[in-house]
Specification:
Largest sheet: 2 strands, antiparallel
Strand order of the largest sheet: 1-2
Order of helices and strands: EEHHHH
Number of domains: 2
Strand content: under 5%
Distance between the termini: 39 Å
Radius of gyration: 19 Å
Number of helices: 4
Mean pLDDT: 80
C-alpha cells in the first residue's frame, strides 16, 4: 500500500519506471514466466519485497515458488477441513483428496528440482 504524506495507507497504486536494456528485459520476461509469475511487474514486486537474501539460482527460486504453492494448498485444505468439521455440506472427501493430490504433485516437482 502506498502512503499519503507518510502517515495513512491510501490503497492507491503508483507507477514506477525501470529502464532495462533489451537483453535484460528479455531475461526478466523469461525468469518471470519460468517461475510462474503472470507478469514482470508481479515478479519484480514479489522478489523485491521478499525478506532475507535474494535467491541466487533459478533452481532455488523455482523450489521456493513450489513451496509457496504447497503452503497455499495447505491453507485451502485447512479451510475445507474446518468447513467439513463445522457440518458444511458444500465440501466432501473428494475435495480433500483432490487438494492432497495437488500437494503430492507439487512435492514431486520439488523432489525433481533437488535431484535434477
Amino acid at each position: 500500500m502506498t502512503r499519503n504524506n507518510g502517515s495513512k495507507p491510501t490503497g492507491k497504486r503508483k507507477n514506477i519506471s525501470v529502464r532495462p536494456k533489451p537483453d535484460e528485459l528479455e531475461q526478466l520476461h523469461e525468469r518471470a514466466a519460468s517461475f510462474g509469475y503472470k507478469s514482470v511487474s508481479q515478479y519484480l514486486i514479489e522478489r523485491g519485497l521478499r525478506d532475507g537474501a535474494m535467491i541466487q539460482t533459478p533452481e532455488r527460486e523455482r523450489v521456493e515458488r513450489l513451496l509457496f504453492e504447497v503452503r497455499k494448498i495447505g491453507v485451502n485444505i485447512n479451510q475445507i477441513a474446518h468447513q467439513m468439521n463445522a457440518g458444511y455440506q458444500g465440501y466432501s472427501q473428494q475435495h480433500l483428496d483432490r487438494a492432497m493430490r495437488e500437494v503430492q504433485r507439487v512435492m514431486k516437482e520439488i523432489v525433481q528440482e533437488f535431484k535434477g
